[in-house]
Amino acid sequence: MTKYFFILTVLMTIASNSQNTLKAVVKNGNTGELLVGAKAQIRNTDSEKTTDKNGFVALENIPNGKQQIAFSCAGYESKIESLDFPLSINDTLQISLESTEGTELTEVVVQSTRTSRTIKNTPTRIEIMDGEELDEKSNMKVANVSVVLQESTGINVQQTSATSGNASIRMQGLDGRYSQLLKDGYANFGNFASGLSVLEIPPLDLQQIEVIKGPVSTLYGGGAIAGVIDFISKKPKTEGEYDIILNQSNVGQSNIGAYASKRKGKFGYTLMGLANFQQAYDVDKDGFSEIPKGTNFTVNPQLFYYPTENSSLMIGNSFSKGDLRGGDMQVIKGDSDGIHTYFEENNTIRNTTTVEFDKKFENKNSFKLKQSLNLFDRKINIPNYLFSGVNTNTYTDASYVWNKEKFTLLGGINLIYDNFKQKDSALLDSKSFTTGAYIQHTWDVAENIKLESGLRLDNVHYSNPNYSKNQAFVLPRISALFKINRQWSSRVTGGSGYKIPSVFTEQTETMQYQNILALNNVVAEKSIGGTFDVNFNRRITNDLSFSMNHMFFSTKINKPLVLQNNNAGYFFVNADNPVTSNGFESNLKFIYDQDVKLFVGYTFTDVKAKYLEGHQFLPLVPKNKLNLILMYEKEDNFKIGLEGYFTDHQYLYNGYQTPTFWKFGAMAQKTIWENYNFFINFENFTDTRQSNYKRVVNGPANSPTFDEIWTYTEGFVFNFGVKMKF
Predict the structure, then answer these.
(1) Which of 297, 310, 645, 659 matches a 20 to 30 Å C-alpha distance to 352?
(2) Can you give the residue range of the structural domain that contains 141?
């Protein structure tokens, strides 16, 4: 009996020594307020407790050894503590969480304004799509960022080809040429590349996406009329980051990609590679592809050198190559005959080299020098017609930032050269050279008032074989941030912009630039516009928080470039009357218990082409759009999402009004063994597509015509894959 009692005692002693208790008090890091309902969890386990009315929590049965304890609370940044159990000191742990209620308080440093300010102290209204959102959306389309943008409030990805899938980005209902796409601040995605740009930016190496809606010409000059979308790349960190993604879809797309980064001492690197393989896909069995057959790959290495703690030099090169072949399915398969002859090929090569030097001084001032060289070679081939050319773009920018206690002053100059050379012809050759100087002053008038004013002077010389023109532009801009209290804030922005003439627009893209005449005696389009928004955030209960952003926008474009035609072909003229865009966006976010999130986005857009008689609608612009997203997530465990998107009537160029439609999607992701995330996505599972209403392809197979694209063409798509993080 004594022997059994001894064994039992030993076992109880071992058990008691291997289980520990952690006591903690969780507070607001800014105010010291005790947080009720905050969670404490042993990571990768179901062991979880919440704080009481005194902010106190006790986690029991914690195994010996190194454990990670996660502390979280709705409206606050999570914090993870790594502790070795048993603890050497049994005192109650004091945990401070930083508030992140609403978008106004999110401590995110924005890069597009170049002032290194956090988003809550920036007068310019900026929307941030962070790494978590990019991670979720990239599950849906690994190859490019089109889904990330398509499902954002106030942004529309407009497909421009029924067979090749080419697309452009619209903001505030305006044509894609009025929005600038940037990669780390470099504008290398316009003109001849515009119809394919969004299809050539993979999300794998992105840290965040920054969206500025409305005029932002002070820093970015021509083309930034409707706004700017800046894709910000990840930077190397000392702990290193290594990701691999594998994806497969039911429409015949396979993706394999990898990202690696590391900083050690004075050197660092990032390396991203992605390969996409797509089979031709004909969802409606009409004999023509909705998704073209294609292969493309991208490789993007960057090297970083840090000679001192306050200076860095980056040298990078991004190379991508794509080959797409759509059209008649028999032709794609190599079985063409006298009837089956139609195809559309897009072959592209893009190479972008970037160099960036950044120097920070002891007085918090900084200097930055940026240089890029971009070569874009594209060939469009359809039966009996070939259009090809090379677009060369160089961008040089030097800027200096003065940081004082109450203000930030930014000044800089830049040079932009753009040259398009058409192969086998000089008909559409064009070039432009822009010299610009800008200054921007951000003033902390008081703790709750921030003012930002800017002025840009640009001189642009553009020419083609027909004519040459020089224009100067004075571009003022002003923004203000008013923090009314912890719950209410507001921003207002106004400014002007311009866009120099180009034959490369959404409309000519749909025509593969056939019968397009060179520009002659046209001038730049000029704009004036502004935005005004109101922000509100509040914790309704201990478990439920709510935030709202409501923005009004208005833009007027004078001398808009309009496509017309005569017996000689299609040509552009400046219309006497303007294009106007007015409307508003509303974004609501509900977070319950930090695990359940509901996002509601609504956009109202009223765009008028005043130069038209009768109906002055701008084609392919829905007046009303609604976004609904519901997410349930257990951090580092799993996430499940359901999405719904409503699109209102649109007008086509022929005056036809399209039906309204909904699109629904669902996704799930599960983390296994810490480093492996398995995901599955059901996109458009209600199979909304244009061919459900009417055939998209018209006429005989050997000489087809195509309807304008106003909704989805590929229908229901599901994909699945795995992300590996090391």
Answers:
(1) 310
(2) 103-230
